[in-house]
Write a structure and sequence with these properties.
Layout: E1 6-10, H1 16-25, H2 35-45, E2 52-56, E3 64-68, E4 71-73, E5 81-84, E6 94-95, H3 98-115, E7 120-124, H4 133-136, E8 137-147, H5 152-158, H6 161-172, E9 176-180, H7 185-199, H8 206-216, E10 220-226, E11 232-240, E12 244-252, H9 261-275, E13 280-286, H10 291-297, E14 302-311, E15 321-323, H11 331-343, H12 346-356
Parallel strand pairs: 5-7, 12-13
Antiparallel strand pairs: 1-2, 2-3, 3-6, 4-5, 7-14, 8-13, 8-14, 9-10, 10-11, 11-12, 14-15
Helix pairs in contact: 2-8, 5-9, 6-9
Domain BioF2-like acetyltransferase: 186-297
Protein name: Acetyltransferase (GNAT) domain-containing protein
Organism: Desulfotignum phosphitoxidans DSM 13687
Length: 362
């Protein structure tokens, strides 16, 4: 699509450097929008990406002015949806102006209409394209974000005394926090699978996390907490943008709850981010006043609106959201599915996840 000032086109493999440079230098960018996430989806789950870049047509010709990453997520024999982005809280359009955001969205709508894809789902951490924020604000979820000082000691001192005690106790009891990469992946995945089984949720494949680590390189890290006996008790993964560290996956094992490994895990991530100059840590989405919301709030995290919308390409060019966020499973169906998964043997539920998880966009 052309305008008087901006040219929009699909990306190629040669655009990865410019794409990542733009995301890393944009104040609204997140680690999910880096090319590594898109490449991991393609490699692990074999879904096609279609990503658009907006470039200047006049002065500073060729300078990137906006990006829109999209994944064509679909079950076999269905048209599915273009999602920006699946498996995370955020993605969406990133641009220098609302006008360029709108142009990128319009281009995505035209592409979806041409391919007869019935939905374009956008998940953003902010209002976008000049749309009324009341139309896109997620009504049931917020992201929890904590500003960070550049000194872990100052960070620790800013926490309430109860939280400081819960951080120090596992250290005194001999638990240890380990930070690394691929070497820790088997431990991380073992904990992740057991925790998801206990929660009644299907799991991502091992290859998914392997690809994330491979394509993110030094921007992805695994943290593992071990007991005094060396048993892995909690683990998580962080993805790093120059301004923001995101925690998309974290798990702890119920049988070690009395040792507070989850507190040491999150303190490990927070202190790492603070010591390395990151300004913010995103704990991920939560339902207001739910248990995970209160857990994140105790660290000093504050709720920030998510802006999700699913668009119908048939209304193009008006860009009116078809609904505020993609429809999920009803509560009854979800509770039933969780109960069934919890009753399955662990290896069976993991195998089920490997086969089905890629079709679940969240």
């Amino acid at each position: 699509m052309l305008s008087s000032t901006v040219f929009i086109r699909p990306t190629t493999s040669q655009d990865q450097g410019a794409w990542n440079h733009y995301v890393c230098n944009h104040p609204g960018g997140t680690a999910y929008q880096l090319s590594g996430f898109i490449r991991a989806v393609e490699a692990a789950y074999r879904f096609k990406s279609i990503c658009f870049v907006a470039q200047s047509r006049q002065q500073n010709q060729g300078r990137v002015q906006g990006i829109l990453p999209l994944i064509h997520l679909h079950a076999p024999f269905t048209k599915g949806a273009l999602v920006s982005l699946p498996y995370c809280d955020a993605g969406g359009v990133l641009a220098d102006s609302p006008e360029t955001e709108a142009a990128l969205l319009a281009h995505a709508m035209a592409y979806a209409a041409q391919k007869k894809i019935p939905e374009v789902a956008i998940r953003s951490v902010k209002p976008f394209a000049g749309l009324d924020p009341n139309l896109t604000r997620h009504s049931g979820k917020v992201r929890m974000v904590r500003a960070l000082p550049d000194d872990p000691n100052c960070l620790l001192g800013s926490l309430k005394s109860k939280v400081r005690s819960q951080v120090k106790k596992p250290m005194r009891d001999g638990l240890k926090f380990h930070m690394g990469g691929r070497r820790l992946l088997p431990l991380f995945y073992r904990i992740f699978c057991e925790n998801m089984h206990d929660l009644g949720s299907v799991v991502h494949s091992f290859e998914w996390f392997y690809r994330i680590l491979a394509f993110y390189g030094s921007r992805a890290h695994i943290g593992v907490v071990t007991t005094p006996a060396g048993e892995p008790a909690a683990a998580g993964m962080i993805l790093c943008h120059p301004c923001l560290v995101s925690v998309p996956w974290a798990s702890s094992l119920r049988r070690f709850n009395s040792l507070n490994p989850n507190m040491l895990l999150y303190w490990g991530f927070l202190s790492f981010a603070s010591a390395n100059g990151f300004k913010m840590l995103d704990f991920g989405r939560s339902t207001p006043d739910a248990g995970t919301f209160r857990f994140k709030k105790q660290w000093g995290a504050v709720p920030v609106d998510l802006h999700w919308a699913a668009f119908d390409p048939a209304v193009f060019p008006h860009l009116a959201p078809s609904k505020k966020q993609p429809a999920g499973r009803s509560g009854m169906k979800r509770n039933l599915a969780e109960a069934v998964i919890r009753k399955l043997p662990g290896p069976v539920s993991t195998g089920l996840g490997v086969l089905t998880r890629k079709y679940i966009s969240l």
